[in-house]
Amino acid sequence: MEAADEAQRRKAIETEFRRLEESAMYSAQMQFEQTKQWRSVNLALGLPATTLAAVAGTTALVESTGRIAAGILALASAGFGAILTTVNASHRMNQAAAAANAYLEIQTAARTVAADRPPHLIARRGPRRPGRADRST
Questions:
Q1: Could you give the CA distance from residue 94 to residue 102 in angstroms, rounded to a whole number?
Q2: Please, is 18 exposed, middle or buried when counting C-beta atoms within 10 Å of its C-beta (0-12, 13-18, 19+)?
Q3: Cα–Cα distance, 42 to 37 (Å, whole number)
Q4: Rounded CA gap, 67 and 61, in Å?
Q5: Taking CA 49 as the corner, what is the angle to CA 43 and CA 51, rounded to the nearest 5 degrees?
Q6: 49 φ, ψ to 5°?
Q7: pLDDT band at 9 (very low <50, low <70, confident <90, very high)
Q8: What is the spatial distance between Cα 21 and Cα 62, in angstroms, rounded to a whole number?
Q9: 82 touches 100 (CB < 8 A)
Q10: pLDDT at residue 134 above 80?
Q11: How many CA atoms are closer than 13 Å to the CA of 100, on its beta-carbon side?
C-alpha cells in the first residue's frame, strides 16, 4: 500500500516539475522577446537624438542664418534624450535578458529533477549572468 502511495506521490511531483519546466520555458521566451522590444525602443529614441544633435551642431557652426533651425533641432534632440533617459530602455533590456536566463536555469533544474538526475551532477550549460558565481561547485 505504501509503495503505491509513494509511486503516486512521485508521479505527482514529476508532473509538477514538468509543468514548471514548461512554464519556465514560456516565461524565458517572453523575457527574450521583451529584450528585443527594449532594444528597439533604445534604438528608436537614441538614433534620432544623436542625429538631431549632430545636425543642430553642424547647422549652428556652418550657417549664421540657421540659428533658429539649429535651436529647434537641439530642442528636439534634447527631448529624445530626456525620454531615453527616463525610459531607461538599455537597463530594462539588460534586466529582461537576465530574467530570461534565470528562467532557463529554472527550466533546466526542473527538467533534471523530473528526470531523476540531481542538478549538481549535471554540467552547467548555456549563458551565464555576469557577476554570478558558479553554484555547481
A1: 12
A2: middle
A3: 9
A4: 9
A5: 95
A6: -60, -45
A7: confident
A8: 61
A9: no
A10: no
A11: 18
* Cell numbers at 30, concatenated: 517572453
Instruction: Compute the residue count for the chain.
Output: 137
Q: How far apart are CA 11 and CA 128, in angstroms?
A: 32
* Mutual angle of helices 67-87 and 2-62, in 10-degree steps: 170
**pLDDT at 107 (0 to 100):** 92
Nearest to 22 by CA among 108, 117, 132, 107: 107
SS3 per-residue string spanning 67-113: HHHHHHHHHHHHHHHHHHHHHCHHHHHHHHHHHHHHHHHHHHHHHHH
CA distances from 37 to 34, 78, 89, 96, 130 (A): 5, 23, 9, 10, 22
Asked if 1 and 87 touch (Cβ cutoff 8 Å), the reply is no
Residue for cell digits 542625429?
51
State the pLDDT at residue 58: 85
Place of cell 531523476: 116
